[in-house]
Description:
Blueprint: E1 3-6, E2 13-16, E3 34-37, E4 43-52, E5 58-70, E6 75-87, E7 90-103, E8 108-119, E9 125-134, E10 139-151, E11 155-165, E12 170-181, E13 185-196, E14 201-204, E15 208-214, E16 217-224, E17 226-230, E18 235-247, E19 250-261, E20 266-269, E21 273-277, E22 282-292, E23 297-308, E24 313-317, E25 319-323, E26 330-341, E27 346-356, E28 361-365, E29 373-375
Parallel strand pairs: 1-3
Antiparallel strand pairs: 1-2, 2-4, 4-5, 5-6, 6-7, 7-8, 8-9, 9-10, 10-11, 11-12, 12-13, 13-14, 13-15, 14-17, 15-16, 16-18, 17-18, 18-19, 19-20, 19-21, 20-22, 21-22, 22-23, 23-24, 23-25, 24-26, 25-26, 26-27, 27-28, 27-29
Amino acid sequence: MLTKVVVSSLCLSLLMGACQGKKSTVLDEENSGEKQQIKPGLVLYNSIIEQSNARGQLLWRLRTKRVSYTQEDKIAKVEGIIGNLYENNRIILQLSADGGEVTGEGKEIYMQGNILVVDTRNKVELKGEKVVWKPEENYLKLTGKNKIKASHENMVVLAEEAEYDTKRQILRLKDNIKATTKQPTLQLSTSRLDWQVAEDKIIGDKPLTVIRYQDRLVADIIKTDRGKVDLNQHIATISGNVEYQSLNPLLIAATSRLVWYYDKRQVEAPETVLLKQPKEEVTITANRVNFDMEDKKVYMRGGVYGRNHSRKSEIYADEALWDLAVSPAQIQATGNVSYKQSEPPLLVRGIKAWGSLASENILVEGIGNAQVVTTIEIE
Length: 379
């Protein structure tokens, strides 16, 4: 028979003689007993500490190998911890640690050494060296000399510090964060990240770098001020000062907002975008852009302006398709087309144009009654 010993006025209790000789990372819930008053300085072995709220609902329970209690400081020092956190009499967290202290009549629990926390609702797993646990505030903070680790079926994160809102299931990670997703592989680097574990979404409001790997090689890189990633839908919404870079095909884009379907390597940019091919010294600006990097095509609408900076040639159009699958890249422009070059001086207007802006090999044509207008500029 277990003996329950009251050690505080807030239903913080000890159950002695529990689970002796049993090694496990999950707390055995079978217990019973009667309450007794603990004597100051008493040391107990193989005991259980627990706390209930004013309604008698169990808040948390810890099984310990050794516990000592000082009445003056109201501190219970514990060793060999395995415990549970409850919500509506249901286990929501399981945890273990080498040792720690229960203070503030059970309102704060400090643990250290080989910390392991598992949320039974979403299966996220947290590892660290130190924990501050405030059960009544739904608050858990992990730190350590080495980085803390948060693992889930869709992502693994390393960080210097983590705070977990146990009620909302939101994990806030801080400092030197490296997050790696699975299938497809993304690596995120930032200084602060909120992980909505139940929804499988992450939110970063600090400068963020995202790298997408394909066949273990870097395929895409994004640098931005902030972003959101839906891990289930494989969609990233990026905003701020956004720089997108594709390594195959080689392309750089700058904008203020984009939606990235990173499993398909497709991008929607609803605001003005500056596109650049560094090797060919060609830039194109468009108001709305869709990328398909698997097909190596860029679709541009809402007004398009392209420029060859080395040869000083320009093209304007309502819409354009930029085909990066061929070399040099080919452009197909439609609607109010205007092409201008400096050597030799030439200005051509029409309905449609296609060719290479990099090599200044552009053909402009009219449709039906629309005639091509050519102007030869003579200095």
